[in-house]
Amino acid sequence: MRYISTRGDMPPKAFSEVLLNGLASDGGLAMPEMYPKISPAELEAWRGLNYSDLAFEILSNFADDIPAADLRGIIEHTYTHEVFRSEEIAPLKTLEPGLHILGLSNGPTLAFKDIAMQLLGNLFECVLEKNGVELNILGATSGDTGSSAEYAMRGKRRIRVFMLSPQGKMTDFQTAQMFSLQDLNIFNIAIRGVFDDCQDIVKTVSNDSQFKQKYHIGTVNSINWARIAAQIVYYFKSYFDATHSNNEQVSFSVPSGNFGNICAGHVAFMMGLPIRRLILATNENDVLNEFFLTGCYRPRTAAEILHTSSPSMDISKPSNFERFVFDLTGRDAAKVRKLWQEVDNGRAFDISGTPLWEKIRRSHITSGTSNHEARMTTIRKIYEKYGVLVDTHTADGLKVGIEYREKDIPLICLETALPAKFSESIVEAIGSKPDRPTGYENLENLPQRYVVMNADADAIKTFIAEHV
Ligand SMILES: *Cc1c(COP(=O)(O)O)cnc(C)c1O
């Protein structure tokens, strides 16, 4: 399988090459040259496989330059009871017949990002070892992504993580989760500034190609194709769990921010999984919902972002959305390049009234939006009716999913974090604190390891140079 760019101007690459790269050289995103089509016989054979075996069947299509035995080993070493603290990886919880929650948040940082990130860490280790190179991951985080990356990379050979976060702006739980890591390859850098300052530093350093090359600087952001690939697996897994035969269809509801999670669902659909609808849920930052209603895509500026009680969905410019549009244009890279020329220049594009819009409007994606009040009501209602406590992001998904639920079509709502991470909102919704999973009770009291620095890209470069 070779990988091409959504903007059409990258020589085809192998999986392990796109694994270590961020954006494609032409500013686009890496995409498999074509999607593997799963035959009815294969789909039948996959029903009943355990998570690791299913992951191997799916991922070996995409990661075909990693020897099969290595890939199998990596997968088996990733999806364990030890890492994901549950009997099953991605257990399906049934609220009532035809309504399910897919448990994706049992990994070390209590959010679904661990499912892909843990695999990424092990894939990195394997490929770096083989190529005899090192990787210094530089990232900016407002909470979830940074901790997920650190827990996936801690203690790994040939990898260091330099993670910038805005000093004092994360929740105590998030701060403690990251800063309590004592691994010598993890560097937590609290920046005197806000999240955008952190992100600007990462951009400045990444644009210094000499520095980038000399110090092997890389990223783990959600445009990484391997993260999307890893997320395809649980769409298949939960489809099998929610149905009796492959003649049935299901719908998924997906709390969305950067369009990564739902993009994996789109790929599963393209591979032939019988999906009726992918229901996209946004919070008050409704760039995507606005597009799916009107055909106008207007990314917001950082200043326009609203800070909400589902903070991991507070996204101004959902980067993976470009992958979906690429497919819906019939993979017309020239068209994508033209549309994203507008986006890259801070403008909107409006495709309403065009054949492309008709195609997207009739596609498998349906969208809706949620807000703080709806989240609180949903958390309360789901708790009262089913005795199940969900976090604020999952609540957004449930709210919109239930709105579009159809008779006789099972609905699977993706759980993207555990309520324990968003204690304050849970107290507001139900009047009491969520339980913490075992092992996390004492998190905020553990010793913390971090440095505080000014928002100064040169100082960060010096720090990196001194620690590699
Ligand atoms: C990252 C994240 C999301 C959004 O997922 P995307 O793949 O960016 O659309 C939703 N909920 C939680 C808890 C997250 O951490």
Architecture blueprint of SSEs:
Elements: E1 3-5, H1 15-20, E2 30-32, H2 40-46, H3 51-62, H4 68-78, H5 81-84, E3 92-96, E4 99-103, H6 113-131, E5 135-140, H7 144-153, E6 159-166, H8 172-179, E7 186-192, H9 195-207, H10 209-214, E8 217-218, H11 225-242, E9 250-255, H12 260-271, E10 275-282, H13 287-294, E11 296-297, H14 321-328, H15 333-344, E12 349-350, H16 355-361, E13 365-369, H17 372-386, H18 392-403, E14 411-415, H19 423-430, E15 451-454, H20 457-466
Parallel strand pairs: 4-14, 5-6, 5-8, 6-7, 7-15, 9-10, 9-14, 10-13
Antiparallel strand pairs: 1-2, 3-4, 11-12
Helix pairs in contact: 3-4, 3-11, 4-6, 6-7, 6-11, 9-20, 11-12, 17-18, 17-19
Description of the structure:
With 468 residues, this protein is an alpha/beta fold. The protein has a domain of 223 residues: Rossmann fold (3-Layer(aba) Sandwich), CATH 3.40.50.1100. The chain is 44% helix and 15% strand. It is built from 20 helices and 15 strands. The strands form four sheets. It has a six-stranded mixed sheet, sandwiched between helices. The chain is globular. The model has no long low-confidence stretch (mean pLDDT 95). The structure holds pyridoxal-5'-phosphate. The site of pyridoxal-5'-phosphate has 16 residues, from helix 12.
